[in-house]
Amino acid sequence: MQAVLRALGTSARFTLRLGQTVFSTALLLFMCLDVEFYSYTSFSYLVTVMGLVTPWSMSLALVDAYFVFVKGLPRQPRVLLVVIVGDWALSFLSLAATCSTASVTSLLVNVSSTYYPSNICSRYQLSAAMAFMSWFLSFDSILFNLWLLPSL
Amino acid sequence: MQAVLRALGTSARFTLRLGQTVFSTALLLFMCLDVEFYSYTSFSYLVTVMGLVTPWSMSLALVDAYFVFVKGLPRQPRVLLVVIVGDWALSFLSLAATCSTASVTSLLVNVSSTYYPSNICSRYQLSAAMAFMSWFLSFDSILFNLWLLPSL
């Protein structure tokens, strides 16, 4: 029973990590194929944070895939602690970046629809939506991490 | 030793709650004495969230003051759970509101210094700084709450 629950937990975490990787990569592509993002502080901040989130969740997805598909190694408490603290920090950073981006985008859409072509604004809106999805998945993984805390 | 530690913890929490109350009240005064805040989505959101944070932290400060100065009643797990979940939710909401406000303020300061009188912009900046202080204290109290989790 314990082993089945642990395997279920690991595959759920693997799915969450995969989703984070997909959304943050798509966001980076959306933002960076547009050349104007660095003229706004919040968009630059979002790209920086997502540039941290993407490799983090990609490597953890690889580790979880190894656990799921190959074999379940015993987890080491020190590694778990690093993963939990890193998840917390990245979740807070990406929430901050997401909200900044969303509010700046909404302001740009409302105020200056005459100055900007509408396709750029809708691209910013799509990026904000993807950042929210990525944050939501990372929030789910810190909730999952709460179950790992007692094993520390 | 246990009792001394618990008393120290309670007075530290009381100080944190008091700080949150002071900062969020000051922010509300700063924002609401200015009549233009409701024309921006993020400022309205910030005022809404801080209108939730102020009574929450004020009532918890009163409870903690009762614990510190009058007597230490035994804590009830159900009440503790409500406090912990509420702190988490309010901390995330206030981080989101704070970052939205900060980014919109920075955009307003950079872009439209010709349209706005500078004293309004500096008032928004002060409000954003106070929102950050209030969020920082509420983050400290959710870190303190982690010590309470094992007693649930």
UniProtKB/TrEMBL annotation, chains A, B:
GO terms for cellular component: plasma membrane. It comes from the Eukaryota. The keyword NAD does not apply. Residues 9-137 form the Casparian strip membrane protein domain. Its main location: membrane. InterPro entries: CASP_dom, CASPL-5. It is found in: Cell membrane. It is a multi-pass membrane protein. Keywords: Cell membrane, Membrane, Transmembrane, Transmembrane helix. Coiled coil: none annotated. The chain crosses the membrane at residues 21-39, 45-67, 79-104, 124-149. Pfam families: CASP_dom (PF04535). Homodimer and heterodimers. Belongs to the Casparian strip membrane proteins (CASP) family. This is CASP-like protein. It comes from Gossypium raimondii (Peruvian cotton).
